[in-house]
Each structure stands twice: as C-alpha cells, then as structure tokens.
C-alpha cells in the first residue's frame, strides 16, 4: 500500500474500533503524549511519521535531531532523527483520556484498549514500535523482543496483551531496568514467532515503520543462520 492510501479508510471518529486507529493509539501510548490541548506521537522513522499523520488527519510533521537514552540504560545515549505528529484539540485529548485511559500530562493512566480487541495485532505493533525493542541476541542466537517504558501500568498492560495474542508468546515478569524504567521480554523460544505474527499483512496495510520491520527481518535472518 502506498503512503497516500494509508489513512484513507480510517473513520472520522479517531477513537473508533479500526485497525489504523489501533495502530495509531498504540504508537501514542508507547511514545507519545496527551496534553490538555493536543495529542502527540514521536517516531524516528519519517515514513512512519507521514503515515501516522495521515491516519490522524494531522497537517504537518515536525522534525528535529534529538539525543535519546538507551531503553534499558540511561548512561548510554544516541543521536537520531525525531519526527513529531501533533493533533491539536482539547476535545480529542479529553476523549482519548476518557475512552482509552491514556494519561494526561502528569496524571496516572489506566490504559483501556478494549475498543481495539478485534485489532490486537495492529495495537501491539504500534506499542512495539513506540516502546519496544527488537534485536538479535548473539548469546542465544535468537531474536530478542522486549517492551520498556517508565509507566509500569502500561508495561503490565502490554504484557497482558502479548500473552492473550494469537501466537503462543510466553513472557518474563515485569522488572525494573537500571534506567529506572520497567520492562519485560518475550521468551527467546517465542520471540521470532511473535515478531513474524506482529508484521504479518503489513505489506498490504502500510501500518508499520519500515526501519523497524527491516530490523526484525535482519534479526530473523541471523537467527535462522
């Protein structure tokens, strides 16, 4: 699917149960903010940013160079492009908080994603691209998939979604990383299978970050030898 087609089928109600909106709100929860007057989502992938903007009806994408901490260890940083999609509107922010339990500014979140129960793959893909990591683990020769976020409630919610997803994907317990954030990982024996399921059908839907999918595919190739 071309970038021009992404967002074309999304309903006017951006909180409706729809695969494109499940992906969008997963991205917002994983690496975005809900303020009193706007909803923002950040990504290091320009193509993904354009697609998210199309889904949400945002008029522009802002770009800057940022320094980010490594997910598991804040002592390690890296410089990368950061693209921000912003949808302005107090009504949307209020509705997102009420319907999905997303935190507004410093308020705690409750995270209710039941509206996207029929689109769990797209929701989890958005969450994975927002606050997940994918790598090749040379120590075990397997794909590594984990989720890391400062909000323990969100991490526990994601863990529940992963364990209820179609592929059998056992996980470890939620733990605190040296960065002070919270994380869990998909078991090594299941991570590759879960990653393949996560990106199944993306060629047709366009609901993915190209850089993240490339990383998964390279990790799968190395794991398969």
UniProtKB/TrEMBL annotation:
Stretch list, region Disordered: 202-225
One family name in Pfam for this protein: LAGLIDADG_4
Domain of life where this protein originates: Archaea
Protein name: Cobalamin biosynthesis protein
Organism: Halorussus aquaticus
